[in-house]
Each structure stands twice: as structure tokens, then as C-alpha cells.
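From: lab user (bench 3)
To: helpdesk
Subject: output format question, protein + adenosine-5'-triphosphate

Hello, I'm new to running complex predictions and I'm not sure whether the block I got back is the full result or only part of it. Here's what I submitted:
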Amino acid sequence: MKSIRQSQLFTKTRREAPKDEVSKNAELLIRAGFVHKDMTGVYSYLPLGLKVLKKIEEIIRKNMDAVGGQEMFLATLQSKELWEKTNRWDDKVVDNWFKTELKNGNELGLGLSHEEPLTNLMREYIRSSKDLPKLAYQFQNKFRNELRAKSGLMRGREFLMKDLYSFSKDEEQHLVIYEQVKQAYTNIYKEVGLGDNTFLTFASGGIFAPFSHEFQTLTDAGEDLIYLSREKGIAINKEVLNDEVLKTFNIERDELEEVKGVEVGNIFSLGTRFSSALELVYANEEGKRIPVIMGCYGIGLGRLMGAIVEVLADEKGIKWPKNVSPFHVHLLNLDTKNELINEWANNFFDGLTQAGVEVLYDDRDVRPGEKFNDADLIGIPLQVIIGARSFETGSVEIKNRLTGDSEAMAIDKIVDYVMNVI
Ligand code: ATP
Ligand code: MG
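Helpdesk reply: Thanks, we reran it on our side. This is the complete output you should expect:
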């Protein structure tokens, strides 16, 4: 589905906000027909939403491959015995499990993360230091019994995560990878259009350094409190802010503004926490068994999509950055009743599509006002508007949803213009 006629799309926009939805991202995405709310914290992706999700996925995949990540796909059903070995099966230790059981009564877990099964699996492949370093990643649904799931796509009970894991022979090797992934993450947020709003943030849980790193996108819909100095480029999660930390960064409390953010990704050194418990070891030159150093690196795709909506939307609707927009162009034909114009618009649609442009073609028999409102709600960055007038003047109107600018353009210039923008 590179291009599609809107009359064929089974989803429809709606004017009213869903009654049971409190978050802006979910409200807009439901109204515009990107997602369906099945129940609290559980959303299904409809054709438009899936297109956005896939574009985000492709950007992440490209950047994970670039740092040497190898894609895989692990099972969701997880063995209780493995999680007992790392002491994470007990509900008193991990409080957001979804557990289930086999017919014979044996318990299983629905994967909330994948350190245990992957570490266990890697034992079969990592034998000596020559097998290291290795990076493996996947796009997988995670299941978490979140206490509060009020942030729409930003906090689901079932959600798609990219999780990358690194395996290194020593701290030095690990830290090189850690820096490379950090850079890859910075690229990803830039590419999806959140570069200006997303900050590398110091958070709790460091192993080789005093901190782990989160990527926080600033939005009032976020659940985290961040202390930020835009001038010095320093962001600190409230959970680790204290006098000692301020001293470490050589910064005063009043140089930092308090802002709200959503954690759109995090990178974490795990040390030997999992490799020791599950005996993922390699033999060094002297034959000594050394536990592998691990790192884990997560990005929630739905959360990222929700964050884009929260940060960029205006009172009319969503605004997609071009790299993640479901289509490049929203083509609006205002005169579907006029046969001549209809035929001409159809040809124009075919021409754009053949040139490789992804087009949502509003060929529906509805009033222009409704088309304009829907186009602004759906949020495709370029709107190309044609009607009887363009047929007479040989020019069409191009509207940029991101800037609100609008201009008339000769018809034979459109394809070049669009190709240039995308
Ligand atoms: P949070 O602190 O927000 O609860 P977390 O620290 O538990 O998240 P991780 O377990 O490290 O998150 O998961 C990696 C990434 O997955 C997060 O950075 C976030 O982008 C995403 N994520 C985590 N929980 C959810 C969720 N419930 N819904 C959607 N995305 C999520
Ligand atoms: Mg967190």
C-alpha cells in the first residue's frame, strides 16, 4: 500500500474525542484513524498507524544495523526457571508481570523484557573472546502490567519495543559499543523529527559510570521530571539529582530548569548481572571462565509515535515529520462530481504514484471543508489541492501542514517539487 484512495480506506476520521481517553496522543490518533483502543493500555494499529510504525521501525533498523546489530526475533513465552535464576520471577521483585500457565499447571511469563532468554541462548554461541563483541536486537511486543496506563501510546500494557543487547569481553570493548549506540540513538531521534526536543539525560543505574542514559523528549504529557541546562547541554533525571551530582557536573541548581519529559529510549550497562547468574562465560587465554559484559538498549516505538504527536500537534490535528508520515502527499480533489476534473485528478494521482511518491488521494464525494479538516487532522506534511480552478489556471495549491504556508504551483512542476521535499 504505497498509495491509496481515501474512499477505499476502511478507517474513517471522527470529530468527537473518544469519551474514555485522557491522553492527547491517543485522542488524536484515534480520531484520525491511526489506532483503535481495545482497552486501557491496549491499542491496535490500523493501516495509517501501521505505516507510521513501520517507518519508525525502518529508521531504527537502519541505525542498529549500522552499529553491527544483527536482527532476530525471540519468543514471547518465557521460562519461569530462567527468571528465577536472575531473581526476577518473584512478583515482589518485578511487579508488572503478566503470567500464565500451561495445561499441566507449569507457570510461564509473557515477556516484559528479554535479557534472560537471550543470555541463555548466547551460551551456545559464545565460547572464546574471538566470539566477542556481538550485538543482537529485535522488534518485539512486550507485556507489562502497568499500574497506570493513562498516557495513550506512551504507556501501553502491550507495546512494541526495539531491544538491542551487546556482549563484550571486557569493559573497554563494552564502552566503545555503548558510545556507538548512544550516537545511533541521537541519529534516530533526529531522523524521526524529535531532534530539537530530545535530550540525552543522566539517570540512575550506572555500572561502569555513575549513571545510565535516557533519551527524554520534552512534553507536558511526560511522566518524568528533568533538570535541564540548554546552555550547557546537560539534562539530569530528578531521580538522581542531588548536591553530589551537581558537583560532578560543575553546575548550580538554579542553572537548571525543571521540565517534564517522556523517556523515549534508554541505554544501560548491565555489567555481568545476567551473564553471571546464567553462566554466559567465555574462556580467556589462560582457560579461565570470564563472564561476558552486557549492555541493553531500548526504544518504545509506540511511545515514540505518541511523543511525536504530543510535541508537534496543533489545535487542528497531527503534524507528521516527513520521515515518519504515513504518506508523502495528501492529494485533495475538491471537485469529484466534475467528470473532466475527476479524470484529470486520477491521472495526476497515477503519475505521482508512478514517480515513487506515496499518496493518500482524497477522492471521496464529500464537501471541501470536510476534506480540509480531515487533511489537517491526519497531518501529512504536504497537501496538494486540486479542483476546477486548477484545471483552468494550470496550477494547483500546495500547502505545507508543518509551516502552514501555502502556494500556487504550475502542475508540471509538482512532481519535481515533491521529489525534492521527500
Ligand atoms: P518507564 O520508566 O517509562 O516505565 P522503563 O524504564 O521501564 O520505562 P525500559 O524497560 O527500559 O523502560 O524499556 C525500554 C523502552 O521501552 C523505554 O525507554 C520506553 O521507550 C519503552 N517503554 C517502556 N515501557 C513502556 C510502555 N509501558 N509503553 C510503551 N513504551 C514503553
Ligand atoms: Mg525508566
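A quick orientation on your result: The first strand starts at residue 4 and ends at 5. Let us know if anything else is unclear.
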